[in-house]
Specification:
CATH architecture of one domain: 3-Layer(bba) Sandwich
Number of helices: 16
CATH superfamily of one domain: FAD/NAD(P)-binding domain
CATH class of one domain: Alpha Beta
Number of strands: 23
Radius of gyration: 26 Å
């Protein structure tokens, strides 16, 4: 065997929710692939170059041994007693979030950052809002898991069961030292590592001098000293790591907007002022209401997915009425839903609580109209029916305002570039990169005069009056769900610290792809630039392309385009059915291809002179979502190779190579779009919901299996159990378990556990 230059990296993974589970899954898939190749070589079977991977290695026994040895040793810290993260049923005390909230969480000091938080989770009766077909794994299908067709929409516990089914053998390997699979590994494979349950990470820091991360942990439930916020040293355990994967997700702390909380509780009012003395909850706390829903009236703050799901769930449980406040007219999905079952949901567009009146009455009023104000729009906007009015008989206010990331255990230099304390991202650079050096997305010499974005269908942004003259592409990557100041998922100022979280609208598939991608970065298969300056340059180019190709990102970055879009929406001149999803999915699938993930086959190479793509036609996709007009290069998927920017890239020119959605990718995208359109197709005078529509539109892109229709209307289906036809004893599964890590393991009882929780 050839000499090995260094020990395998020792990695600490913070959190064993889906992100942590999927990283272990991808790591063990790579180990399994290498062991299979080694077996082929030992049996004198031919092994083609790069088999099972895009890395192009020429495999021999020594190469595989070195590769096996280079696989990281992983320790996962999980504060709960089992895996699953938010998909487990937990409750928490929400954190307030606002300008006047305590500065403890943002302090630079070690002790103050240890602000105590409690575990939380998705409410028990939650259903997924998108069809299961858009997060299915190719190597662990729903047919394999359930053994029969299932409805497209699943309960929380069913999704948790699927996640556990996709990773059960891997989790067993890391938690059971006597695991049959663990014992079957070759002696020259690297040590696996472990999962430490009921272990809470209290502090992480990096030593530049010694080049390692120091992680301190305490038993879950430990309480720090009230005055110092320090834990008793006797219960603190220290750990050293070469790299950290921060896999806690972005939805750890329930977000409670400070303005509304203080208004409802009278925190800023004079003594004697009215307060709302009924329950004020976050959506993760609704279990505390128990069965006390029937005949009650509720006000929801926020109009995103949790508001929609809870509103429908409350109607199912007999609520008298639900009012939903939306800060924006384009708050998806609530404001896109024209009709609700039994007409028991009222959506208050651009409305907010103005005052608490005696008797738990709430005076509601319109938010300010963005300028410039056009008279005819203002008349519609300030319709008399939406003037200040009073809500009476509200039995609880529920904040459907999402979550925030918990970074309390991190010092500022591991929190990305969020300018805490006024520290700017580029203070770490040897050569300061000025804002004027960032590319202008409207630079015609760099990009040409054409804007290849999804906004074409709306004719908004194509006029010089509809967009700014200069919009600089911020290299911190502050767009959509990205972590600022990160490149290849690691911090630019500390390439050993990885943020592992979902960035797209299919979070579970997204996390699995990102897990494969992060592993490839750690193994060196996907290189990062050597300097921070070059990483910032590449991030800026990526951001520029995202702004140009994505209507939503451009909406966030360009204030003139933002206003033009809003005004056209008020005037009824905007196609509200257009949704900026095609580019983000293309980007996700391109990342999958680079990482060797199966979802990479959602896109295919297309010759520059070809008129049709490999793998099928584009008949399945509406023309407004067809990205064939946008050319993407092989090595730099975010680059638009018909622009001059290509010449400035350090990547080899591949102008003749473009990538387009494959037939499978088009089916995937079409299903996503159909699931969105189902929301605005709800009809008056019916008790149907979006989960009862378009079931014929969905199918597995891997097996072709069509979902079955609910046996009754979704409003009649139990939230915890699901449709009565859903129960499935996994001991009768006929699946081939091809996605499992089952080396030398044929235990007949492996599938008899109750982890599917159906």
């Amino acid at each position: 065997m050839n000499s090995i230059a260094a020990d395998p990296p020792n990695i600490g993974v913070i959190g064993c929710g889906p992100a942590g589970m999927f990283f272990l899954r991808q790591l063990e898939k790579e180990r399994e692939r290498l062991l299979d190749l080694k077996k082929k070589i030992a049996e004198s079977e031919p092994v083609r170059k790069g088999e099972g991977s895009d890395n192009g290695y020429e495999y021999d026994a020594d190469t595989i041994d070195q590769r096996l040895f280079s696989l990281p040793i992983v320790t996962v810290f999980e504060k709960e007693g089992r895996c699953g993260g938010l998909w487990q049923s937990k409750l928490s005390s929400p954190e307030t979030n606002g300008e006047e909230s305590s500065g403890v969480a943002w302090s630079q000091t070690k002790g103050a950052s240890r602000k105590k938080t409690n575990a939380n989770g998705i409410y028990d009766g939650m259903w997924i809002n998108a069809p299961k077909e858009i997060f299915e794994f190719e190597d662990y299908t729903f047919d394999e898991h359930f053994g029969k067709p299932m409805p497209s929409f699943l309960t929380r516990s069913q999704v948790l069961g699927y996640l556990e089914g996709a990773t059960d053998d891997v989790i067993d390997m890391y938690t059971n030292i006597n695991s049959t699979i663990r014992k079957s590994l070759d002696d020259n494979s690297s040590a696996l590592g472990t999962i430490l349950f009921n272990t809470e990470v209290s502090w992480i820091e990096y030593s530049k001098t010694d080049e390692y991360f120091w992680v301190e942990t305490v038993p879950t439930g430990s309480i720090p000293n009230a005055s110092t916020q320090e834990y008793d040293p006797k219960i603190v355990t220290g750990h050293k790591f070469d790299k950290i994967i921060f896999a806690t997700g972005t939805e750890n702390l329930p977000n409670m907007p400070q303005r509304e909380v203080r208004l409802l509780t009278g925190a800023d009012a004079d003594n004697g002022a009215a307060i709302f003395d009924k329950p004020i909850l976050h959506s993760s706390e609704v279990k505390s209401l128990g069965a006390d829903i029937t005949g009650k009236r509720f006000l929801f703050i926020g109009a995103a997915y949790s508001a929609e799901d809870l509103a429908l769930s409350f109607l199912k449980r007999g609520a008298d009425h639900v009012y939903v406040t939306a800060r924006r007219d384009d708050a998806y999905p609530v404001t896109y839903t024209p009709h609700w079952p039994m007409d028991k949901v009222t959506v208050l567009m651009r409305n907010e609580i103005k005052e608490v009146l005696p008797g738990n009455r709430l005076r509601m009023g319109r938010m300010d109209l963005p300028s410039p104000v056009i008279e005819d729009i203002a008349k519609r906007f300030y319709n008399a029916s939406h003037d200040d009015f009073v809500l009476e008989g509200i039995d609880a206010v529920i904040f459907c305002t999402g979550y925030t990331i918990n970074e309390n255990m991190l010092p500022n230099n591991l929190r990305g570039y969020k300018t805490y304390g006024g520290v700017e991202y580029n203070t770490e650079l040897e050569t300061k990169v000025d804002k004027d050096d960032w590319p202008n997305i409207y630079d015609t010499e760099l990009y040409g005069s054409e804007i290849p974005s999804e906004t074409f269908q709306n004719s908004c942004g194509t006029s010089v009056d509809d967009h700014s003259t200069v919009v600089r592409a911020d290299p911190t990557g502050h767009c959509l769900y990205q972590i600022e100041g990160a490149h290849n998922h690691h911090l630019i100022n500390n390439p050993g610290f990885f943020y592992h979280h979902a960035e797209f609208e299919t979070p579970l598939l997204d996390l699995d792809i990102h897990s494969a991608y992060i592993l490839k970065v750690i193994l060196g298969d996907i290189p990062s630039p050597d300097t921070m300056e070059e990483m910032f340059r590449q991030r800026s180019l990526e951001t520029a392309e995202a702004i140009r190709h994505s209507q939503l990102v451009r909406f966030l970055y360009d204030p003139v385009y933002h206003e033009a879009t809003i005004l056209k929406s008020y005037e009824g001149k905007l196609n509200e059915r257009s949704y900026p999803s095609a580019y983000q999915f293309f980007k996700l699938f391109s990342k999958a291809r680079r990482a060797g993930h199966p979802a990479g086959n959602m896109i295919v190479e297309k010759n520059a002179n070809a008129t049709t793509m490999k793998g099928g036609t584009t008949d399945a996709i509406p023309s407004c979502y067809d990205l064939r007009a946008i050319k993407f290069t092989e090595d730099d998927y975010h680059q638009n190779d018909d622009s001059n920017q290509r010449a400035a890239s350090s990547s080899p020119s591949t102008a003749a190579t473009t990538w387009v959605f494959s037939e499978r990718g088009l089916v995937f995208l079409k299903q996503f779009l159909d699931s969105m359109e189902a929301h605005w197709e709800m009809q008056p005078g019916t008790n149907m919901t979006f989960r009862d529509f378009r079931f014929d539109s969905y199918q597995s892109v891997y097996t072709g299996t069509k979902p079955r229709r609910f046996s009754k209307l979704w409003l009649e289906v139990d939230d915890l159990v699901g449709d009565e036809g859903d129960f499935h004893d996994r001991t009768t599964s006929t699946g081939n378990n091809k996605g499992r890590i089952r080396r030398n393991h044929d235990c007949p009882t492996c599938d008899t556990d109750a982890r599917s929780e159906l």
